[in-house]
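Thread: quick sanity check before group meeting

JM: Hey all, I'm pulling together slides for Thursday and realized we never actually wrote out the predicted structure for the chain we discussed last week. Dropping the sequence here so it's in one place. If anyone has concerns about the input, flag it before I start.
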Amino acid sequence: AIAVVGNPRTHLFTPPTALQHRAPALYGTEDPREISTMVPVGIMPTGNRIIYLQNSGNFVYFSSHMIPYLQKIDGDADVWTIIDYWGEGHVAPPGDLVRSVLTAVLADPLDSAGAVRFRSVEDVRAHQAALNIRRMALR
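JM (edit): ok, ran it. Output follows.
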């Protein structure tokens, strides 16, 4: 299977989250600690390909969701990243990019859509820094 995700939330129990509103009906509690004892929560190797689209202008999701996720996965995981600046904050990837990624996924090779195979958190941080420097230079 292939998952294409854009600015995903990787910490499901960190407020605010839709799970907070549904948790009592689903689990009888909204306490994340109790829920995590009922449901296995964590990063598990799946053997599936993940294409992770991330807005470099979304500091919270970049630093609090993407980086911790990438730090926990195996370096051999089939994870590809596309990081670019789409605006300040939680801005979705542009439709043209999503279309090109989906087209590439169906046809392969991902590098034609600008995806880069994840190798290390340091590489991802360096890529974001380069994008931010380039964006600042254009101001």
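AS: nice. The CA atoms of residues 12 and 41 lie 9 Å apart. The beta strands are 2-6, 49-55, 79-84, 116-117.
JM: adding both to the slides.
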